[in-house]
Amino acid sequence: MNKIGRFLLPLLFPVVTSAAEEFLLPAPAAEQEELVLYSATDYEHLAPLLVAFQQTDPGVSIRVVDLNSRELYERFLEEGQDSPADLLLSSAMDLQLKLVNDGHALPRRSEQSLALPTQAHWRHELFAFTFEPVLMVFNRDGLAGREPPRSRQELLALLRREPQRWTRRIVTYDIGASGVGYLLASQDSQQGETYGRLLEAFGSLEVQLDDNSNDMLAALARGEADIGYNLLGSYVEAAVAAHPGLVAVAPEDYTLMLMRLALISRYSPRPELAGRLLDYMLSPPGQAALGQAGLQPLLDQTRLAIQPQGPITLIPLTPALLPPLDRLDRRSFVEAWRGSMLPASAAP
């Protein structure tokens, strides 16, 4: 089977489990090893990288367990030392950092990992492989000739002028279900008072909540929603290219920039093989494969299709990400968020 066939087959025939989808990329040659990835990066954006890696390691088959960022974290911890995962990939930077901080990762020092900028790795145990903006997205038909808001303040003004027009027409992350959604909300909350006022507006307009960027973008493309808030740039770029009726905005007041992160499990049955895939992800060919699949390569910011027009707020890969994950702090934050976002009759 040719390379395209190997890529399409697992896309068409995923293995569905009770908790997640699994995708298997068979080894191009006689199988010698199987690598297991737990991934919160959509498989269609990851598969070209994995196919390209298999050309360098043709005896490797790759099993991808596709989870959302919160599910990935919780499943890995529940499995503990019995986890089959070799490599964990997630955009929930805080949850990935906590796994490293709690001793669940192996270090990797290689030519590729040592070449990373200091802000793109943590203790040589956690490594960024993409870098992308967090965006607002609008359905042009839903705007009905209005200019899309360029900032959170402009969005808030639009919602307040015509509240009935936007009721149940907004989609954003459910931060109780999504790890990256919680990360983005906690980062927004540190930027000033506008976000709190925006949450109250969302709540009064019965916002639709989801745990998946692509599901929200699909709802926008179908006209089931008009406004998407805090969606991941790589998925947005692909959706805007496929659906000209969508327009994306990097907020001018500030644009959050997020890094997808990889770690090698301390319990990996195949740590050296996991390290080889990690090295390939960070190499020029691997970064090019990620870019061709619609992700934003870490080391090539010239590819950003939607360039921020105002201040950039890089979510830092530092211990500052950890305090909001304290169990009591997280519960308090989510409860306050739900109090703002959900009508009293619907709040749990």
TrEMBL record:
Pfam family, one: SBP_bac_11
Signal sequence range: 1-19
Xref: PANTHER family: PHOSPHOGLYCERATE TRANSPORT REGULATORY PROTEIN PGTC, THIAMINE-BINDING PERIPLASMIC PROTEIN-RELATED
Keyword Signal listed: yes
Annotated protein name in UniProt: ABC transporter substrate-binding protein
Lineage: Bacteria, Pseudomonadati, Pseudomonadota, Gammaproteobacteria, Aeromonadales
Keywords: Signal
Keyword Membrane: no
